[in-house]
Amino acid sequence: MAAIRQLAYGGGADTVDEYVRLGETTARKCLHKFTAGIIHLFGDQYLRRPTPEDLERLLRDGEERGFPGMVGSIDCMHWEWKNCPTSWRGMYSRGTGKPTMVLEAVASHDLWIWHAFFGATGTMNDLNILDQSPVFDDIVEGIALQVNYYVNGRDKIRRG
């Protein structure tokens, strides 16, 4: 319960002591064991890079929907950081004065999340976040998977 409460409400390990009667160290250990269990149980299926078969399916689905060559949609959102340290507020605050962290995600049409990058400062715009993000690193470094796809009846090869 301590782990789920910390994840659900975004509170620290010391915030669950009154509700579940656990000390901070024990609550932190519970969270660590819970997340390690999730990774162990579901990591191979859900916490992985796309395989060549995944990419071919996503490209085929994108083409059928009128977006040839598209694997997924990328977007960034600002997430308010309630417990931002006072000394960092200026770096993470933008026009609203509230500190935010940025979540960048790539999702396919079936809501499968293929990439998530969290933690860029809230004062950045989407282009600066993309510059920090590892989302295109494999393509830039030339190590992205090679995938065959078709556009207008023509054979194409794409990396990543």
TrEMBL record:
PANTHER family: OS07G0546750 PROTEIN, OS12G0169200 PROTEIN
Name of the protein described by the UniProt record: Uncharacterized protein LOC108830837
Organism (species): Raphanus sativus
This protein's encoding gene: LOC108830837
